[in-house]
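Appendix B, example 12.
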Amino acid sequence: MQKKSIARLQFITSPSTQSYLQQIQSVVMGGTNWVQLRMKEEKTEDIEKVALEALSFCMDNGATFIMNDHVDIAAKIGADGVHLGKNDMAPDDARAILGPQSIIGGTANTFDDIKRLADLGVDYIGLGPFRFTETKKNLSPVLGSQGYMAILNQCKEAGINLPVIAIGGLMPDDLPELFKTGVHGVAISSYIAKSEQPGATTLDLLQEIGRYSSANWTRFH
């Protein structure tokens, strides 16, 4: 079984007027093929219940399903992979549990973070935050487009070719400048989750991302 590719638009669930499952259904029907279930305050049994339903929907619709943290649940239900924050399980430990075909992403704020994660065998990097966001507590220093440019240049010089996904308070107007830095893609949460029509918002973002040249996509990979 071949490992799935890393999407250029990744949706991360966020508390909103829609349930987590409704959010996932909306964005997948809107065209994205990558969702990450992020439930930080709920009980484990509630997270597992939503995860099972979301995974089933994603499998039926050809979307990649990623768990935020909760390696145990990901292993139990057969999720496509996990995204691990700085205070979550170490990526190499998660790999030992999930196996070689699982996708493992890691959160980074600096080049040193990326280097450490690369050494631990992650498949992609979630680099941020781009700007202040209320989605995350204990936010790391914001990077802005210049921060992304500097870090991605360091990655190139070091021969680190992992896909880098920008995250943190992103808006559509940020995309032109952001993709010039060489990021592989973007992860968006609140902007989609809290919109009146998450599916339509997703479609608009996909069309916007599609306007950027392949030269920008492939600058570092």
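The chain has one domain: 9-212. The chain is about 40% helix and 15% strand.
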